[in-house]
Amino acid sequence: MEWEVGEFQGLYGSFQVSERVLQKIWLRGDLNLVQAVTLDGNSIEVLFPGDWNRLEGPDFKNARLRLNGDLLEGDVEVHFRAEDWLKHQHSRNRAYDRVILHVVLFPPEKRILEMMAKEGKGFATLVLLDLLWHDLEEYASDDALLDLCGYTEFELVEFLLSKPLSERRLLLLKGARRRWMDKIRFSKIRVFRLGWEEASHQSALEVMGFRRNRIGMLTIASHYPLAKWREKSPTLEELLRIGEACWKKQGSRPANQPIHRLRQYLKWMDQDSSWPTTLLKLEKDLLLTGCEE
Q: Residue 284: which pLDDT band, with cuts at 50, 70 and 90?
């Protein structure tokens, strides 16, 4: 199966994204489902995103959703734009008859929705753009890093070990620097979108969740933005309950379990709920000039 690739304009130039990236976002639930509503205003709860279909037909099969409390079971199709449904002529393909949700990156134009309605398709539509935790380019960068050149982790290690020690070191330094500069760029985008304080709050929780529990931590950040947390500090039990559907405890080291990380952040906030501002003052006190552009 070949995935469609789109080219988009970011704050720092154009970049390409495979449709597979959007499918992975849906599969992992790596979006702000707390604020998710369909185009017709229905709340949505994802009980099961579906089985990822790598063959012909809908992208995800046998998904289970609640729309305004009503249980629905069926398939999910993911596209960059709603008009891709028409372009690919899915309405003429019986394999798509069980689609209950169309997940698209960009909000569709009214005329596109009207054209789809004429085809008698009554499924709901969910727009991803405003629900993404990160800029789309960052999702694409992470995906490219994980699938670097199509190698497995073992193949990458074998490739590095085949190089002389001096060349191996240069490759690692070059890769590390490029990744660091990407992180700086993506952090700037997050600050641009959220402001310094909220970006700091969200980033701190995400980092404390590491890769396995970052989605649960980001869900907490959505439930409790910094201003709300300052008004009334949540309890540890409440925070654990908010992220309950996302926690991955098996395989995480004891020190990295959500209960310990959340307890640490609660203590952190109790000591200084304005820590992002404190951090800025510290930077000025130390006469730091920031990272190289």
A: confident
